[in-house]
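Hi L.,

As promised, Type I restriction modification DNA specificity domain-containing protein:
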Amino acid sequence: MSKILPVPNGWKPAKIKDAAHVNPRSNSVDDDSLVTFLPMNAVSESGLIEGAEIRKAIDVKKGFTSFETGDVLVAKITPCFENYKGCLCTDLKNDRGYGSTEFHVLRPKKNITGEYLHILTRTHHFRGTGELNMTGTAGQKRVPTVFVKNYDFPLPQLSEQKTIADLLSTWDEAIEKTERLIQAKEELFKWLLRELISEPRNTQITTEWKIVKIGSFLTESRISGTNGRDAQKITVKLYGKGVVAKDEKRIGSETTQYCVRKSGQFIYSKLDFLNGAFGIIPEELGGFESLGGFVI
């Protein structure tokens, strides 16, 4: 059903049904056994389990999809499938789980690791091809089981699968740490604005500082420039990330008046000021222009 990808040396062409059981049955569990329950919102678009619930098996055995530790879940319904919802099932309570009926369950065979199977289901090719093969009406389209079973892919040796999974895991961890650092810096920036400028609470600072109006040391610059068609434009990025040249694919209007900006001037966006859209115009952008919505 899907186009066969080029196969590297030593890798074998395969279908998912050759490497995994698709939507297999799980053995029954006692009614009083505790199991993991995963509604669709407990599986993130980044492939992680977030917000798993622990329930008694009797409460979820009927009407939900069953799976086991080591299985791979893939959302089948739109837009969850296109948004990469899915996960590798780890640390399930008593190694058993139940969840949304909108999951496909893939249980690895001996020739593939769960980690590699999970990676495969998160590739752009798998998701893109699956989207093209969805069936059903708008808003209720789903990826059919037959597509999943017959999806073609190159299957490496187990040792190479583990190497690939370890490498990507390290990369994902680095990305996650970077994103957390960026978020922490943004929160610190907001705190500094609030504590040191907007709402100073340190009594020593507030008694020594003077209360002044910004207008006493800043003036608005409105040097007439060209128009939207001819101007070399600048814009201000959010969260204090600076002033940059604006990359526009479409030519602006001749009737729109722009203003000339000079290096060293302070510029901010009236619309996104609270989101940190302000900065100092660098030397290399002196002479560029912006709309009147940006005041310096």
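The longest helix spans residues 158-198.

Thanks again for sending the construct details.

K.
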